[in-house]
Amino acid sequence: xxxxIFEAMASATVVPIIVFSLLFGVAxxxxxxxxxNDSVLTFIDQIQRIVLTMIRLVMKIAPIGxxxxxxxxxxxxxxxxxLNPMLLPGKLAEQTAIAxxxxxxxxxxxxxxxxxxxxxxxxxxxxxFTLSVGLTMGSCEAVLNYxxxxxxxxxxxxxxxxxxxxxxxxGLAILLNLATITVPGGFPVVVIFLGASLDLPLExxxxxxxxxxxxxxxxxxxxxxxxxxxxxxxxxxxxxxDRDVYYGxxxxxxxxxxxxxxDVLAKADTLD
Length: 272
Fold this sequence. Notes:
The chain is built from twelve helices and no strands. Helix content is 77%, strand content 0%. With 272 residues, the chain is mostly helical.
């Protein structure tokens, strides 16, 4: 056990930190009772407030980054397809609402498929192909998040990752994402497996789990809407976007029984 509390904090060694915190708290209370001076307690309270303010700032900045990334996608769509991007928010509203409430791309998939065909105008053939591939292999935001976590754990534990380990982490992140695509809250399992596979310290995982639900909302939001936007890009060169459907001049109905598909995916999600 380390005798340096700062070293323990830097390396996220939990037991010494807990012991020190308990002893420090007891000693602080004894001193305050004896002297009546609570300036140290006030100082610690101010530090806590500052840290919480920093966390709130990060949580406010994160959605801005997601919106900027989405705007970049939309700009590319507008340039490549020559479609009015102002209509997209209304078309994607339903799938976005389901995505942020379930935090599951798989549960949202039937709605994404129906939206792509009936509201965006992508052909049935193209939507079936691009969106199914996007569901299983296109969750780039989730995989990117896992890689950020790997680098965070490595830095927290002062571990130098080789190029080979980073590539291994990327491969494992992709495969594990495929296995947990229908599982809301599967983040802890994936992160622990990745950390153990790369010999990374797992003590800091608890900090990440505490905010993962909020991050999961943003990941799913980008995953489902990104899949639709990419499907538009793929469908455009082969003229598989019906512009009359996009502009509301014509109505089409998806051939796939979306309700049955939703029930199947929801059941798989429950079993997982």
